[in-house]
Amino acid sequence: xxxxxxxxxxxxxxxxxxxxxxxxxxxxxxxxxxxxxxxxxxxxxxxxxxxxxxxxxxxxxxxxxxxxxxxxxxxxxxxxxxxxxxxxxxxxxxxxxxxxxxxxxxxxxxxxxxxxxxx
Length: 119
Hints:
The chain is an alpha+beta fold. It is 27% helix and 38% strand.
């Protein structure tokens, strides 16, 4: 159609919502943040998640601030790349975590895809 300016730009955005709570049983959520002096260390967290949900979680060493490691559900890292998601979790988790805490986080991700096509 003459005079119409049709954008053919594809866009992709993501909304990230994080829910942080005290660690409890059952322990599994989307993420566990493990403090440096927490009662459970990264290796024990790895054994726990492997026993409860084999191959579903990745243990990411951090060594930053009070945090020693993050245990992250692998399916989240398929939705948003690790290098984009983990800094957000780290930033928010560092605000609450002390060295002797283990915090679980529930993360809701909504991926929004918009495309235009010629009809």
